[in-house]
Structure prediction request, 826 residues.
Amino acid sequence: MKAEIITIGDEILIGQIIDTNSSWLGQELSKLGIAVVHRTSVSDNRKAIVDALNAAKQRADIIIMTGGLGPTKDDITKHTLAEYFGSELTLNQEVLDWVTKIFRMRKLPMIDTNRNQALVPSNCEVLFNKTGTAPGMWFDIDGKIFISMPGVPFEMKSIFETHCIPKLQKRFELPVIIHRTILTCNIGESFLAKKIEQLENDLPPHIKLAYLPSVGMVRLRFSGSHTHYATLKNEIDVIIEHLYEIVGEYIYGEENDTLEKNIGLLLKGKNKTVSTAESCTGGYIAHLITSVPGSSAYYHGSIICYANDVKINELGVSPEVLNTVGAVSEACVLQMAQGVRAKLKTDYAIATSGIAGPDGGTAEKPVGTVWIAVSGPSQTIAQQFNMGDNRERTIQRSAIQGLDMLRKMLLAE
Amino acid sequence: MKAEIITIGDEILIGQIIDTNSSWLGQELSKLGIAVVHRTSVSDNRKAIVDALNAAKQRADIIIMTGGLGPTKDDITKHTLAEYFGSELTLNQEVLDWVTKIFRMRKLPMIDTNRNQALVPSNCEVLFNKTGTAPGMWFDIDGKIFISMPGVPFEMKSIFETHCIPKLQKRFELPVIIHRTILTCNIGESFLAKKIEQLENDLPPHIKLAYLPSVGMVRLRFSGSHTHYATLKNEIDVIIEHLYEIVGEYIYGEENDTLEKNIGLLLKGKNKTVSTAESCTGGYIAHLITSVPGSSAYYHGSIICYANDVKINELGVSPEVLNTVGAVSEACVLQMAQGVRAKLKTDYAIATSGIAGPDGGTAEKPVGTVWIAVSGPSQTIAQQFNMGDNRERTIQRSAIQGLDMLRKMLLAE
Prediction:
């Protein structure tokens, strides 16, 4: 079964708002086993909407529109749909009663534009909107389903969940679709692809693999389509087991996991604590760790030591180290990690020192040079990296590396 | 001049990633005076791409594609484009040299998939990608411009800014468009709108105002279109002067300023330094400050004190305060700000302590309660806020408040 999503509104085209509705609908439709084959955004005008509908019904069985239904819009969508489906706008009493009730509750006067929200094309089925005033509409015409919903995200979601999901499941015989996403870090997309080339070549035609890269990370998404759930699930499980055998060392989680969330789980499971000493990452590791709810259970804090004096006075880095090999060195990050672990009384610690740029690079230590140390009860290790010449990404990559080094130490101990 | 944006990739259709590229491009094209008339997202397959190109060139003069250019095999865009434009993939030596250089710099081996990134259709003009390995491509065919760029947002942005904007301005006669963006913080959109209602009503029809809200901030973008640059510029200048008179206290900058960048400029101008002591913001203020290049000139560091022991031992917060009024209190943040300022030897300091949630709230101090202090050479002040019940937004709003309180103190002294 194929679907197309059409969003209506100039505010999307000029980038004034980001279209999160389509992403959400894409996820929900995929879960239902409905393939989204196309997405379109068009202007608030009759011709654009009609052209989009004509093109969509050539490609898809289910056409889902969002936007263009609010009270201040020109109501162009509703008139266009009535005309497109050869019907007329008529008053829906249930919707009118609901709109009237909302205005009474909010003690607001009701004007004609509000009353007009109860007008719907006579050949649609109303999808009642319990979170707002603009109703959704369902048209079942020539074997295709056309759905129109308001663009306000929570209203759209509520209508889709309450009405559309059960109605689509009833109306169509839907296949089984399974998605599994495996999260890797600190290996480039092309190296990962090389390592799993054989696995990828051996995939059956009904299971697809997609690489989804972001800074320091690549997500691997396996998507399978089949008639039988258990068979497909088993097939994908076997593939992913094999994937772990090949590149398990780079895998830090699955689906919506994050490195910082998984480290939190590991620390809580072992009843251990962590602190950080950050120079070049400037608090970004601390921010990631503390963005996880409940992190105060295992995170004591950080000494962010942008100034060398802070490294010496707060972390016990020796002035000789700074004077000889400098702050961006193995010796310095080792002392930083051990220093903060002792001072903040934690079981583990991460330390970073590097040249995030754009200035400060030398021939010996170019911009992007970063030393990272992780200290635990049984060892302190340090590693050097080159993170490239972009400040923001150097900070992000260093944070991911530091967290991943901690993760590996936690797993090994 | 009309443009259409085509994004390529199943990850967008199934909603695994949110399409922020199209929004960004929509904004940039609008600024250039180019109307985005349509947006399309299609699957990674030849027919879908060809159909989208055929439809787009009926509607638009400029067709911009993003996505589908990475090194791995789920990318077929380049082959499809070569075929579509009746040309073949040939090796571009400049791109190959660049890719080779990147791999040498990062001390990584180069494999065939990396080398293939240097293959481009022979009739395109290469848009050199200085932030990655996949080049952009520019086709000027039958009076229409087709642009293909990688989907990684920072690579796409860099290519568009460096190459596409100047090339589009040269290739087409674009109208005079002036945008001015004024940045406000710590005032809600509807309150701001109420305050500047009269100014907005008095705008001439060729100057539009858009409200662009984000967490803790609202950007006001004035966009004018005219035939004569100087007249338009003067008109907008007068309006903005008036805007400063009405809501100047909420304005922290213009265009691409950030609070942290402007604070950096103020500190450098006064030759002063700052440190931070962060509990509920967990390093996010430090991260914002250190994301500014050159911040080591005025930023010494931070004590992130998630644990109460760290507040006591490192910042000198008195145990009595913690035992009586607690960590989320005026007394605590005042001691934190003064403590970190003394310890890290800076002229100014910001301190935060609050309940970011979702747990830890009480009837007296519900989730979202945050105390923020700013300490300077002549005074230390503290203020209480309620930042709402979302952890991420509470962290962000608290950071913005803390930075803005520092900015105001710096301006006043």
Remarks:
- The mean pLDDT of chain A is 93.
- Chain A has three domains: 2-171, 176-254, 259-412.
- Residues 13 and 41 of chain A are 7 Å apart (CA to CA).
- The radius of gyration of chain A is 28 Å.
